[in-house]
Amino acid sequence: MIRSASPTAAANRSRHRNRLTAFAAIATAPLVLSACGTGVTGDSDAADGPGETVTITNCGRELSFETAPDGIVGMMPSQTELLIRLGALDSLVGQAQTGVSPLPDDIADEAAGIPALSTDVPPAREDLLAAGPDLVVSPTEYEFTAEQGFASIEQLNRNGAQAYVATGGCLDRRSTAEVTDVLTDIDDLGAILRAPDVAEELSRDAEERLSAVETAIGDVSRLKVAQVFVDGNSLQAIGAGIEADIIATAGGENVFDPDAPEFADFFAAEITPEEIIGRDPDAIVFSVSGPESEQHTRDYLQRTFPDVAAVENDRLIAVPKSDLFPGTLGNIDAVELIAQELYPGAF
Known about the structure:
Blueprint: E1 2-4, E2 31-36, E3 41-46, E4 54-58, E5 61-65, E6 72-74, H1 77-85, E7 92-95, H2 105-111, H3 125-130, E8 135-138, H4 153-158, E9 162-165, H5 181-192, H6 196-216, E10 223-231, E11 234-238, H7 241-249, E12 252-254, E13 268-271, H8 273-279, E14 283-288, H9 291-304, H10 309-312, E15 316-320, H11 330-342
Parallel strand pairs: 6-7, 6-8, 8-9, 10-12, 10-14, 14-15
Antiparallel strand pairs: 1-13, 2-3, 4-5, 10-11, 11-13
Helix pairs in contact: 5-6, 6-11, 7-11
Organism: Nocardiopsis mwathae
Protein name: Iron complex transport system substrate-binding protein
Domain Fe/B12 periplasmic-binding: 71-347
């Protein structure tokens, strides 16, 4: 039996990633960006002279910047990393949810001086507002839930700050997000920060890595994959959203249908073990928050599904949860990791 899961379900882990090299300093050429729709697509045009306004549409909201923001908060390490790689280190006045995942080694020391506003949850309203940001960058809209004690987007606006939500984390996009949505975020943030050249290089690197995976697995016979989240003895399936597109981009055939009714409103759904046994996946992908979390999940899967092909062939693939958040370069890492685990002979 499959039941819709709660949107609060989650898990997390320290990264397995191919480290990206740090990119050059911010390019200073001003530009104007005009985006339409939900921020999934957009066009940018260079403009002459200083002080040109950058305007984009993000999650259906229009954001406008007359100058590059100089007080920025990254609401998750994944967003903090992206901002630093875009050259915004000196403009960061806060980083949030710092305990969720470590920053990559090559930038961790640089980021050490950025004030930490929270560790395991989004910062309290007062703490975020006290940092005095003019731009807050978040993986999802959840980080702005006033009912949870967080600053809402409207409250930020009243205090002179604008909120940018990862394209794949917009409410109306969450269940249909794609890996390539991060390219939109790179372009949007590069325009806002007046760093188009850095953004172009970062985007080109991501596209080349995705293209390399596509080429490597082009002729392989696709394996059936179940993507799950284990919390204690509770089992959830991932059938939609950025998580599911990562599987597809890595060459896996998801045994759960994103168009199924249980994934209509949310990308995950609670399932019984029989759902996995009946589908007999060749591989099981699961998200983890660290070694203890990984070992617990492996033990559960091996104990619960001893006769499933994924367990029999020891094809249980652990992915850091931080690499599954919308709007993170970790999405590319996850694609590479899963593809290499599914088809080691292709690499």
